[in-house]
Amino acid sequence: MANPVGTFASYQQIGIREDLTDMIYRISPTETPFLNMAARETAKNTKHEWQIDKIPTAVATNQALEGNNPTNTTVNPTSRIFNYCEIAQYAFQISGTSQAVNTAGRANEMAFQLVKYGLQMKRDMESAASGANGFVAGATGTARVSASLESWMSTNWTTQSASPTSTASTGFVTGTGTTAPVDATTAATVTEANVKAMIRLAWAAGGNPDTILTGPYNKVKVSGFSGILTNNIFQQAGGQAKIVAAADAYVSDFGTLKVVPSRFNRDKTICILDFNYWAIAYLRPFQSVPLAVTGDSNQRMILAEYTVVSRNEAASGKVTDLSTS
Q1: Which of 13, 52, 186, 315 is the most exposed place for a label (fewest CB within 10 A)?
Q2: Long-range contacts made by residues 112-120, C-beta under 8 angstroms, separation at least 24?
């Protein structure tokens, strides 16, 4: 079919205004479950220290004679624990023209980039805090590194691998500190028995685990455990049935634990956590710092200086060397 002769079509028209939606659609994940659930503390030095203690194992034969003159027991001192504050930062520079032009989806380019880099830095911090870094004290030319979640847990852990690389998957040693975990050369599918064993050990040590923190692949595996609350089908307003297939809670012999997926945890490790014993200590909380103006542009830096605090790692546990596909 041909257009009528002489028809003026939009293809020849000059001056059509652009049709640009005044919206920007961002898909990058920004949830940070470990940072959100951990308590918040204040650090006052780049080396942040705290103390832990332990009551000796209960003795069933502690019966004294009438009129007994007791013998002194050995007094055990507390243990002094530490971690180092690391710095997360981004800097960017916006020209005066970029601030002046009429932009779609944001009224102010500097404000837009502040939000965007703030979200990116928080993702970086979640990945570092919930990962497997050992600490680094830092020096001239070497950045400080905070020991992260996996590196702290040394009391209650088990490997799913049939041939672990090391019999000590973690590096926490009282008075020495932490090194990065040693992963096995092989991996296997997580078992409910191993997760239950870590919950039991953490509870027996005095903890009350409340959260199973896992990557996306093994979140699906945990959803298949027999201890998961029964999946429900319920009727919504309007009559449409909704199936709840996700595992949001695991009922153990020692309490009900939230099952929380994380995009930033290593999928090869499942962490069983008592969040009463985890915190993030900030030497410098999130802040935006204007930098020197250089010519026709403005510079801005965002930063945070923080460290992971393991108040007592024995209250938690982990299952390591898991299949991720």
Answers
A1: 13
A2: 113/300, 114/288, 114/300, 114/302, 116/26, 117/90, 117/92, 117/302, 118/286, 118/302, 119/28, 119/30, 120/28, 120/90
* Backbone conformation region of residue 136, classed left if phi is above 0, alpha if psi is from -120 to 50, else beta: beta
Specify the pTM: 0.85
Order of strands across the sheet that contains 278-290: 39-42, 278-290, 297-310, 86-95
Residue with tokens 């999946």: 231
Using CA atoms, how far residue 38 sits from 170, 187, 228, 278, 302, in Å, is: 21, 29, 24, 5, 22
Whole-angstrom distance, CA of residue 39 vs CA of residue 43: 13
What's the pLDDT tens digit per position in 139-176? 999 999 999 999 998 889 988 887 765 554 555 666 56
Q: Which two tokens stand for residue 61?
A: 């034969």
